[in-house]
Amino acid sequence: MTDASGIPQSVPQAISPDLDPEARAFRESLNGPFAEHVAIIMDGNGRWAQERGWLRVRGHKEGMESVRHITTAAAELGVKSLTLYAFSRENWKRPDLEVTALMRLLRLFLRRERKTMMNNGIRLLAIGRMEDLPRFAQRALEETIALTAGNTKMTLRLALSYGGRTEIADAVLKVSRDIAAGRLKEEDVSEETLRGYLYDPTTPDPDLVIRTAGEMRLSNFLLWQASYAEFYVTDDCWPDFRREQFELALRAYAGRKRKFGGLPQQDTDAANTSPANSGGGSAEPATGQAPGTPGRPKRGAQSA
Ligand code: FPP
To answer: Is residue 237 predicted with pLDDT exceeding 90?
Structure first.
């Protein structure tokens, strides 16, 4: 939904009657919009283990438990799309032992949690360069993706061998090939066309990007999709990030005012009805443009 200026508005989402009483009580207590599309940069596994004098791999193993907890909690709370940064293209630079351990954990997770996914109506998808993964991990992914294809409650996307810049570069390459082959006209290339060439064009723009372990970086994650996501950083390392911490992040989101480069609704209303602008109290934007029409920047549109 957009307001008169074409700015997407957060509307109070209907709470599904299927939610359990605890989830419903949490949703009702939010007093603000619910983040239906959440993406998470799961950081701090290594630090969590090292702080305890353990090997880094133990942190990843405990991190896998957090993946299970958060995936289940998200589905129970009514999140529609959860995207987890599980392995970046840059992560290939880690020692072979750690990379192999991560790939094995991925397979273990996929096999062990199929039942959880089926019980919670979770559909699994993956984004990234799947061809980089070892065959055993690809197979486990393909099997779980096929098994869960009919589930509709929540979509869990695992970003694997993923990089936001690579995703955009891969998309541009596909666009150029389609133009060269006459399948796409140059004048038809737009933001929305390009989106259709991303790894999974159905990936919704995240409302909220959460990063654990305190770093204030996007680290090449969902560069296209997260343009206007709200960002939430916690000092908790990923293995310590469970339902309670997730609910804190959702609560913080509910208190945010999203502007998408424009003005919040009440300020837009005030601007349109202020004496300087009052040409008869019209609810139309001051420029007289149709809602959402790109053109002359409106007042305040430069601030992001
Ligand atoms: C970042 O912690 C985390 C990763 C590179 C991998 C994330 C993997 C998991 C959560 C476990 C397995 C995943 C699935 C989907 C089953 P880090 O090692 O960079 O931590 P550090 O910054 O403290 O070193």
So the answer is: yes
